[in-house]
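From: lab user (bench 3)
To: helpdesk
Subject: output format question, protein + fe (ii) ion

Hello, I'm new to running complex predictions and I'm not sure whether the block I got back is the full result or only part of it. Here's what I submitted:
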Amino acid sequence: MSLIVKDLPAAIRDAKKRLRAGLPDLAGRFAGMEEHFRSEVAQIVAAREAGQPVIPEIAYSDIAAGRITPAEEALIRRRGAAVVRGVYSKEQAGCWNEEIGEYLTRNRYGEQKVDPDLDKYFSKLKAGRPQIFGIYWSKPQMQARQGEELARTRAFLNGLWHHQGPGGQSYFIPDRECTYADRIRRREPGDATLGLSPHMDGGSVERWIDEGYRQVYRHVFSGDWRDYDPFDAAWRTETSEIPSPAVCSMFRTYQGWTALTAQGPGDGTLQLLPIANAIAYMLLRPLLSDVPEESLCGAEPGRALSANAEWHSLLLPALTPIPRVEPGDTVWWHSDVVHAVEDRHDGKGYSNVIYIGAAPWCGKNAAYLEKQRPHFLQGQSAPDFAAENYEIGFDGRAREADLTPLGRKQMGFEAW
Ligand SMILES: [Fe+2]
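Helpdesk reply: Thanks, we reran it on our side. This is the complete output you should expect:
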């Protein structure tokens, strides 16, 4: 659903007034919350500096064998992120990497004219667009999305959510995935075209002014932030977004990617702020009296929601590079987890990924598949993204015949 806002400053003023009215003793509650997050950040920094892992790591083979322990699950819920190793073999990921390179070369991707006005999503983050390619329909992307191993991985991760309500109603179905066609990153060693400063996706001002989002964060906005559970799916599929290129209009349990090359800290890759409920801090910060009435601490419609030094400096030291990953490993982070891409790639090899998150079956996601399917058939950019449409005439893109029975369901060609 689309959220249309005619007078944004007025909407922000109204939202703040209403939210504050429901938050007695805001300053006192905020101080208590600040203490909690200061300690959480300190623990993460201490662990990182001691060389201990901060982002949970599990093996795909353990997911497949049902060997993930409750303690491991609890840590993923707390950190809001996980590295799942060995979802695909190194050989498979390496082949996909080469094949995508050939696809781009054969179709002269480098000669496409990029219209800078088409994609403004990241323009307010101090860094620009990194090496993200506007292709959605190469065969390797489609094969990776529809692979059985990835389906099993996502079913496990989706299952960490509370996907059923108290009355037994189902918010989403964890083992049925909807394909959200996204792009790829191919980043050359030495690239310093800048990465992405800390942000989260999936809505900015919406989180304060949309009724669905207010319900998602109902515990935070009523001052009981400790009762807020980032993995409670209630209302998550009922949110509305302001339409804009690159703002995700699906419900994603996690953002994520599959590594096509080895990459780690310093290779121009991902950093995560691994505190699943840190959104509570970002939601309440703009309601304090030192923030201008029409400001949401940097949130702007149609843009990524930035975590910035001016307003969120307490959280930022927890930003931690992902551990080194190998081709075929996957990285996942909750849709409310702050993340960034390193400015410089100082490593020796390409750092390449296929963006594939988790978007389980629900009415909202099924509706998106209806919009997405014709774009796939015609080779257009996916509907949430800038209409660059590079692949319409590309030789060798994936077609309907390339879909497996599972892929057909994930793309909405067939009912589950
Ligand atoms: Fe992002």
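A quick orientation on your result: The mean pLDDT is 93. Let us know if anything else is unclear.
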